[in-house]
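Team,

Forwarding the record for the chain on the shared tracking sheet. I've put the sequence and predicted structure together so nobody has to dig through attachments.
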Amino acid sequence: MPPDRPKKPPACDFCKAKRVLCHPHPEGCPRCREKGVQCTTTPVCRRKRRTKAQIAADAAAEAEAASTTGSSRQTSTPRSRPPTSSPEAYISSWQTLPRVSSEASHDAGRPPYESQQESTLPIPPDPSLNFTIACPASVSMIPTWSATLPYPLAPALTEALCEAYMASSIHGHPIVRASKWHESLRRTGWRVENLPRNLQVTALCGLGIGAAFSADTAILHSFFASAAYDDAVFGTDLREFGKQRQEAVRHLLRNAMDAANEAGVVFHPSIENATSCYMLDVLMRLTEDNRARRTSAHRPFAKAYASHVRELFAVGGEAQGTALADDRTWAIHLAVDVCTEVASDGDISMTKKEQELLVNLGATLSARELRERYRQQSNTPSRSLPDAPPFFVLYLQIANRLKQDFLEPRLWSAPIDENALTTAIRSVAELRGVSESCRSRFDLALGGKFSFDDRPFLRSKEWSAESAVHALRDLIVYSWTTLVPPLHREIIRGVAELELQDVDDDYELDAQQLRARFELLRQQSRQLLEHAVLQQADILEGHPALSMMIPARLSAVLDCAELWVDEAMNGRVTLNAQAGRVATGLSKALKAAGWVWAPARLDPLVVSLDAIASVIPVAPPPALSPNLLSWALAA
């Protein structure tokens, strides 16, 4: 009998995304070495599906636990949140997170904790805190594991993280606002383990997002976090705090993913499960430190969220006929989701058909008609606000067209379509013109924009109608910039492929003309990139608190800054006073964004921006001269 052939190793991530044959090798497959990319292989994990008997047994156990906890809560009083400004509060709130090594595997087993009579807080080294704090076992310093939740958090910390979550931008999403996990958690005395299984997943996701914004000492392990939260001004380097909170956020994300796998949130469409999938995808994008471009196939929770939305908003779905079916509100929030995805990933997880369940993408005004409408409104003395949803519908149409024309064909290395790139540059330039007209109307209605000062910006302000209008104005100005990075990358790829082609002498003239046309496209996309980073720098300088949204929602700032720095280092950007102003503003914004998260890609980018700003005198920007985009922006 012939010996069994050894099983072939799985294909690497790059070859799997390209859908080509892979020849695995310990030093990297030949294709990855040829392309100069890191060859990584994600192991395939298959989870056994639960039987009906197991599902019924779990449901009976949950019902029995809910009845037991419901009777016990009638005689118990929820603990109030202790103050976090004293060492006593620091000690009482340390029953929150175990010290997990950042090098540990994400799927490591749960460590057994033994009871001790005395424990010492594992405070990280700090030159100003050269001491340790010991406390008796009565303070419950040792975490306990339960059958329903891997790690029960202290009620005081849970309440603090919920408050931080409510101040984040994630809470404003329509699906998330329809979820009732926050009210249910408050009724249980801020104890996650007392929630039903599906609400536990949503609550852990919300607590993980809250941990990314919280200044609690149990998250940051520093007594100076509260002072930095109160006194930090725009430009203060807060990256150290973002690095300190990574353990807590990743720990909560692992717990949320374990609970999601047990509850099967990706299989059963409901508002709670759609909320869990949406927030899990946000957390996974936040904690992802590598710079690899990820398609929707690598984001299972994003696809599960889109599937749940399709079921909820289909004919006869749970959301049909409710307040969730407001297409004008969905146009804004759907555009925010696409802005987050298209700049970094070059992909959109929700298909056009799924988007049309939420927003009518068919009948809308063209870019020229919409810009003319905003211009006419700006010429009237009325202070009414412009109609913003049509702009976001136009943005969604252009983004879907870009995906269909060259973002999807890129996955199987299709030839670059010069006509599609030309049309895309014209569409993005026209969208920029529409956003300028809409912004002028907003400025007229609001009486100008906020002026920048050096006041502390981290402390959350009370949300008002005026602040919501200013946020909508900034979103309109920012949205078109998210389409520039994938467009610029695609043109760079086309130029590189043309340089590598071997052309016969008979076709040399045609090849030279094609290279010249692509160089012109690259010059036009570079000008769009310069305008994009300038717009982003102006937005973040005018509203420094928006820097906190860069890691999770405004990721296009990172992508545009990286491309702009690369062009500047290669001598393709004029390093004038305006470039110095852009470099200074983006460096300040990224240092402030480090409060929420400090990925590995952030440090070299800040160093490069500081280097550019150090050799250029900063001065007010001069008036913009006519450029190559005038043909697209002309009326």
